[in-house]
Amino acid sequence: AGREIFDEKRLASIADAIIRVDRQGRIIYHNRAAGHMFGFEPRSAGSLWFSDFCPAGSPVPEAMAGYFKPHTPVSEQNEAFFQRSDGEQFYAIYSMSPFSSGSQDAAARLVIKDITERHLMAHQASAHRRDRETIAITDPPPRLSTRRPFASRPAEELTRVQC
What we know:
Strand order of the largest sheet: 3-2-1-6-5-4
Largest sheet: 6 strands, antiparallel
Order of helices and strands: HEEHEHEEEHHH
Oligomer: single chain
Number of helices: 6
Radius of gyration: 25 Å
Structural class: alpha+beta
Strand content: 25-35%
Helix content: 25-40%
Distance between the termini: 87 Å
């Protein structure tokens, strides 16, 4: 019992969400960070279904179901969208691992880190790069090609003109 109290206190202080899910998909434990991240009530474990926090089409519930099949599950790390209790979506990196392997008390543990801001910045950087590439090869208002694409292919253009 002393070890369980220590573990609970330690888990409560971790900044990443920690969620334990039983074989039916019910959340049987969550730390304070999970409550904050997803909008759970402090003592709501046992009354929440994990699939309610995954947007339609999310691969996470299906991946979790694999942890309860008759083989030894492996830990995995991936990224996916999740949704808070108010429906707002966020992007996170998560790791999933078996918590216990007994047939009666089988559970999966998820550790989830919200990386929405990093995901948005990467998306914006990619869009900015595409915009800069477009500007580099087109003239402004009419959006006609500039000489740059042709200058990069002189031999091809020369062959085309000579035919």
